[in-house]
Amino acid sequence: MSTSAPSVVVQQLLVSRPNAPLPLPGVGYAEQVDAGEVLVLAPTISAAALQALAQQFQQDGRRVRVQRAGHWHGHELLRLAVDTLPTLEWCRQQAERFGLDIGLLPQPTPARLVLFDMDSTLITMEVIDELAKEAGSGEEVAAITEAAMRGELDFNGSLLRRVATLKGLSLTAVNTVKGRLQCNPGVPEFAAVARAHGVKLGLVSGGFLPFAHHIGQQLQFDYVHANTLLDDGQALTGAVQGEIVNAQVKARTLTELATQYQLPTDAIWAVGDGANDLLMLQAAGLGVAFRAKPKLRQAAHLALDVSDMRALAALQLSLLPETD
């Protein structure tokens, strides 16, 4: 846990007991609230930003109460109950105005399963782009990847086109790329918090198994599913084996894991960054867009643009029963 102190604004709002909501200064107090909550997250929530957000609530005629305030893992968090829940578009607009991550929490339920995309979500890179650089097709493949992530191309067809350019790439080069994998900021910390509280962790990727297995083992994930690159023992053949992990497969995997682990949808979070993750996020109780393309940011319950992945650790801890 971060040893840095919370900002003054969060110190003033900290709630030391459960079921003891506080007023948000500058806004009418909500006695009766809508289902769901507004989430406010950032490494630091400044007094000026919170005051401006409170003024916006007041101008919109909304009444608010602070359900939970806290500082965990280098991030500050406010969970706000509102008499009339705003739209996702409203949240995006205020997030951009005030330099905060603002979203909606449909139900205040801690996660019991979190399903992640891999490329550019758990890790910093798009693996296929790195493989293509090794194969000499880097620029061509990067352009296709970018268009596919924006949802402008059919995912299956674009993947097969990109993989075909890898034909003849040595397995030594594949292992070289695997050695360059790095997690995005906050990923190991969130995984550790999740495991400590019995949360199942899954990885379902339109990328490739050698890399997904490596990251899954490193982070001690419970489930890993990705595409299989074919090789002849020395080099890639330029093809994949079996069903391609596309948007429909990702969403279906979430449903299958919910059944396998006997979990309600409210207890399942999904995290991704591209158009291929949209259906998975929509199927989850909480859909999180991480440094995401516009199409996904607009649809997700929460978009993390200011915060790193430790923000999800803060959210999880805020949803657990408080202890003295």
Rg to the nearest angstrom?
A: 21 Å
Extract low-pLDDT stretches. none
SSE order in H/E notation?
Answer: HEEHEEHEEHHHHHEHEEHEHEHEH
Provide the residue-averaged pLDDT.
92
Query: How far apart are the first and last residues' alpha carbons, in Å?
Result: 17 Å
Estimate percent helicity. 25-40%
Shape summary: elongated
The total count of helices amounts to 13
Indicate the proportion of strand residues: 15-25%
Overall SS class = alpha/beta
Short structural summary:
The protein is an alpha/beta fold and about 325 residues long. The chain is built from 13 helices and twelve strands.
Describe the structure.
The protein is an alpha/beta fold. It is 39% helix and 22% strand. The protein is built from 13 helices and twelve strands. The protein has helices spanning 8-13, 47-59, 88-98, 127-135, 138-149, 155-164, 171-178, 187-196, 209-219, 247-261, 278-283, 294-299, 310-319, and strands at 22-23, 37-42, 64-72, 75-82, 101-105, 113-116, 200-208, 223-231, 236-241, 268-272, 286-290, 302-304. The strands form two sheets. A seven-stranded mixed beta sheet has the order 9-8-7-6-10-11-12, with helices on both faces. The chain has a five-stranded antiparallel beta sheet with strand order 1-3-4-2-5. A hairpin with a 4-residue loop joins strand 8 and strand 9. Helix 4 (127-135) runs antiparallel to helix 5. The longest helix is centred in the last third of the chain and has 15 residues, at 247-261. The radius of gyration is 21 Å and the shape is elongated. It starts with 7 loop residues before the first helix and ends in a 5-residue tail after the last helix.
